[in-house]
Predict the structure of DUF1146 family protein.
Amino acid sequence: MFSSEIGQMAIISMLSHLIFIYLTWRVVQAINFDPLIRKGRGAEARVLLLLLTIVIGSGVSRFFLEILQWSRDLLYLF
């Protein structure tokens, strides 16, 4: 892999992670978690939702990036 390809993949990976984390945050905001949150624990609940959003968004992004890499690696099959 050439250095320009590595740089391109780095930009694609960063953008992918940010986009999927943002999309996950939008989806999480649509879910009503109020019945699960104790009174006076709103700040902790927001931090938990933020951390869950990062974990889920990064996992989905990693999946798509692996599919992208595997599809590029198919060239070496033939």
Notes: The helical segments are 3-29, 42-73.
